[in-house]
Write the structure tokens for this entry.
Amino acid sequence: MIDDESSTVGSVLDEETVDVVLFRGDQGAAMLVDGDTVVDLNSPAPLAREVCLELVDSTIQLLASADVPREVVDLLRQAPVPPAFNTTPWLRHHRAVILSDDRFALGAFVLTYDSDLGLCVQEDGDR
């Protein structure tokens, strides 16, 4: 028997979250923020299992809450899934955030990365 209430809760939670992998680089070859792995995000070729595992292990789940504005989650969810991520069911719903100088502009927000603090979200005017 399917629990309608838990199914609804799961759907709402899915809409309020987005899984992202942080990279440094450009739209082509990008390096994991916390590693040396370089990924060609535009390649439709299947990723090696070890690379997939490393990407999954580097995933950050953002939840629309007081710390991450709903608009940020919505904007990231609207971003396309990189072709390289579509090659595996483990990553097919993930988004890539490619940082330049540890920053990523997203609408009215700026995502910043600090090795001690992690990923932070600021409104663009708060810089």
Residues 4-101 form one domain. The radius of gyration is 15 Å. The CA atoms of residues 24 and 100 lie 6 Å apart.
